[in-house]
Amino acid sequence: MQWKMFSTIFLIVATLSGCASIGPPTVARDRFDYISSISDSWKAQMLLNLVKLRYGDAPVFLDVASVITQTGVQGSVGVAGSWWQNPFSSFAGVTALGTYGEKPTVTYLPMSGEKFARSLMTPIPPGAILSFLQAGYPADVVLRLAVHTINGIHNRNGYGPRAREADPEFFPLIEKLRNLQQSGQIGLRVKRIGTQTATAMVFSKKLTPAIAAERDEVRKLLGLNPETDEIDVVYGSVASNDKEIAMLTRSVLEILTDLSSYTDVPAANVEQKRTFPSPAPEIVNGAPVPPPIRILSSPQKPDDAFAAVPYGQNWYWIDDKDFASKRLFSFIMFLFTLTESGDKQGAPIITVPVG
Length: 355
Hints:
With 355 residues, the protein is of the alpha+beta class.
């Protein structure tokens, strides 16, 4: 009887003392949980701002500046008892007390200020667009999002006073550029001219007949010299010569504003003048051009959503089974990270006790 009682007490004490060191095991759990939560909130914030732009509301961005968490365990155990020769008169008592505490500190910073606003409204440099293509992002997707014109060929614009359909040559042009990109026969070259750098698009000199025909069509559409294989890419509306591609690029804010026009909105909101009617789909070669992103809406919260937010009386979401929309949405989130968030000198200083 005594041996069993002491064994039980020893196990309790060993268990409590084993819980005293919990630091390392919490790292994997906390890191995964916080990353998941920050990622989900970032997606929801971006989607909400797209919907707000659709209704003429001002976008607001909030950054998670830091996450600090403290975890601690305290425990105590007490034992009392006495034993007699008569087993019916023996007694024993064990008391145990344990506490667990977690104190997370999350710091948020509004993304605002002149530097952030200027960065949000500054057109993306053509060199950055070519870098996206070099990194493997589809040419038709990147150019459809990020440019107003390429050598005077206009892209679609679905929002505001600049709303217009794309020129007939635009979608065939970006499709042929996508084919050239997939063939691996088009590349990027960065040249230094004095203190400045210039970016050039280079065609391979050894092309298959089919790819050579695509290249010749691109040259023809853009009005390029049919003999040149290296074309300078500059910012602007009009090329200065036939060996140059002038891109009038969009800013991040213009990209978000244009994408917001693809949001599905209730007919009642249009009738009440809360927002503008959805633009009609564009037709190329007798077939409608698929929208780059589909943002759906309904009065009820969706069951299977990649990202979903409430706004007004409705829910807006991206279907988790719509891979094209998810891929593009993730791309614009990455694109947004390129904007300068401004100085963070006003961030609060946090002192965390370590004792």
